[in-house]
Amino acid sequence: MKDKSKLKITDIGEFGFIARFSPSFTRKLPKNLVGIGDDCAVIPWKNRKKLLVTTDLLLDGVHFLKEKISPADLGYKSLAVNLSDIAAMGGQPLWAFLSIAIPPETEIGWLDEFFRGWRSLSQKTGVYLLGGDTTRSTEKLVINVMVLGEVEDGFIKYRSGAQPGDVIAVTGDLGDSEGGLRLILNNRTKNQEGSAEKYLLKRHYRPRPHLEEGFFLAHRAEVRAMMDVSDGIDSDLKRIIECSDCGVEVHLENLPVSSALRKCGQKYGWNLDEVAAAGGEDYCLLITVNPERFSELARKYQQRFKRPLFPIGRITEQKGNFVYLKNGQPVTLRKTGFDHFKT
Ligand SMILES: [Mg+2]
Description:
With about 350 residues, this protein is α+β, with helices and mostly antiparallel strands. Helix content is about 35%, strand content about 25%. It contains eleven helices and twelve strands. It has helices spanning about 10-20, 25, 70-90, 110-125, 175-185, 195-205, 210-220, 235-245, 260-270, 270-280, 295-305, and strands at about 40-45, 50-60, 90-100, 130-135, 140-150, 165-170, 225-230, 245-250, 285-290, 310-315, 320-325, 330. The relative contact order is 0.15. The model has no long low-confidence stretch (mean pLDDT about 90).
């Protein structure tokens, strides 16, 4: 075992880091506050409403490659990923703050485009940009976004509500964004690429935060836990079972995969189970549902959104136990979800 003082951040990983430092900040919180550990912090606000706060930091070279994403897409995505965390709590986004560290050689035209992309989403969702901070960066572009939203008390969904037997479901296809990322890393982004490639790239560059879906699901009592799919269900479901003290069984043959991802998977030899389970940034919602009421919920959801809810597995009793099944047989996946310090 390593000497504690010599431990590096890469030894404990992103989640080890959070586990090490968060207890000292969450232990003595007043009962009516939710701090570190869910998609948003939840703060008492006005009559029967709570304030939601979320923040995300995006760094060139880690979260995006400045040379490989258009500034308009980057502006859109910076806001979208934060709105997705508001959706995950069942809330409605209200205001945003943007802090940005800009390398001095950045062209104004690039920034104009960044804000055009941002505005295209902020106008659609009614989210006002209220402030932030601007600074010179010595090297790379750094973007930090904070979004505030509101949610009705009693209609908030947490990661901690899952119960053994619950059906696990997602609100959209899995793995498209990872497929898009693989195309980018393999330089398959040119105009002459096929329509399947274009679709995956768009899904990677312009994720749609599932705000209306989140609001709808938060108002259904049979939905017991909710979060957004940001790091991939492999990693995200681990968060749910940690918070809810249970286990999980994922049925790989039920993971929803788009026809575009299937096509590219065949063409480039991708393992689609791994792409769908471990690929991040799909930004759909992941829920657990009282099994007795799942079919009714799925029907209502289909009626409302003209799209299905996809059941992908169930919550089990064995604490911390994570099992993948394919047609009933246990399987091991090579790649696991995203962790910032473990690559
Ligand atoms: Mg989240």
